[in-house]
Write a structure and sequence with these properties.
The protein is built from eight helices and 13 strands. The protein is an alpha+beta fold. It folds into two domains: 5-141, Fructose-1,6-Bisphosphatase, Chain A, domain 1 (2-Layer Sandwich); 150-260, D-Maltodextrin-Binding Protein, domain 2 (3-Layer(aba) Sandwich), CATH 3.40.190.80. The protein is globular and about 45 Å long. The termini are far apart. Bound molecules: D-MYO-inositol-1-phosphate and calcium ion (2 copies). One calcium ion binds next to strand 3.
């Protein structure tokens, strides 16, 4: 597979930040059993990864703006381009020494996501996509799962928790889907949920309360693998909508219909 120069920049930044996260994850596993717990350390690891990403991306494209989870908006002199970055997606997993987390970088050009990288450093899985050029896991081209029936589908979701989301509404949505699905998964990293939909491991994914940095890269990876992505209305752009449904067209339609009917 041939990667563009821009995608190479993103891959380099993501793998560098991912290596730093792996080192810190080893420490978290130790701290896990201490009285104080690893919370402060994890927050420092998150910021360290973000700093690496910011420096790498700004070094190569100094004019581009950034939207980063921890630093917020960093204006660039080029109004057309913006990196959308989550340095550590799956923080709760990381904090609990659960090895399921990722670095996510999307590149926005004139309001459209044109390149995306999601890197899971523990599994050494690098998901990449460029608009019009397909999606890849490492060097393998990705194709979305072709299961058309919910009864055969494994659906990923994000479960709201203390202080997040509207729990009664979510329970209705979940009930409407789990009644007929083959399985439901809650992995704890939205960027990976989307990447795994692209890889055909999950047949669909739905979640609300997400931010642009959670979905920017993953939504392009799903689309480039032949999948369909929208907000809960079924036709809106999920980047800023806060809600997302992903899957092949059949599974997407079925999940959307059930969420709308709840
Ligand atoms: C979170 C993860 C999680 C999702 C949360 C996100 P973070 O991101 O993607 O799966 O359910 O809504 O906030 O905080 O770990 O970067
Ligand atoms: Ca996130
Ligand atoms: Ca994060």
């Amino acid at each position: 597979m041939a990667r563009s120069a821009l995608l190479n920049v993103m891959v380099q930044a993501a793998t560098k930040a991912g290596r730093a996260l792996i080192r810190d994850f080893g420490e978290v596993e130790q701290l896990q059993v201490s009285m104080k717990g690893p919370a402060d350390f994890v927050s420092a690891a998150d910021h360290r990864a973000e700093k690496i990403l910011r420096e790498e991306l700004q070094r190569v494209r100094p004019t581009y703006g950034l939207l980063m989870e921890e630093s917020g908006v960093i204006e660039g002199s080029d109004p057309a381009h913006r990196w959308i970055v989550d340095p550590l997606d799956g923080t709760t997993n990381f904090l609990h020494a659960i090895p399921m987390f990722a670095v996510s970088i999307g590149l926005e050009r004139d309001g459209e996501i044109v390149a995306g990288v999601v890197f899971n450093p523990v599994m050494n899985e690098l998901f990449t996509a460029e608009r019009g050029a397909g999606a890849y896991l490492n060097d393998r081209r990705l194709r979305i799962a072709q299961r058309r029936d919910l009864s055969q589908a494994v659906i990923a979701t994000g479960v709201p928790h203390q202080g997040r989301g509207h729990h009664p509404t979510y329970l209705k949505e979940l009930a409407a889907i789990m009644a007929d699905a083959a399985g439901i998964r809650r992995m704890g990293a939205a960027a990976l949920d989307l990447a795994w939909v692209a890889a055909g491991r999950f047949d669909g994914f739905f979640e609300t309360g997400l931010n642009p940095w959670d979905v920017a890269a993953g939504m392009l990876i799903v689309r480039e693998a032949g999948g369909y992505v929208s907000d809960y209305s079924g036709h809106g752009d999920p980047l800023n909508a806060g809600s997302i449904i992903a899957g092949n067209p059949d599974i997407h339609r079925e999940v959307q219909r059930r969420i709308a009917a709840r």
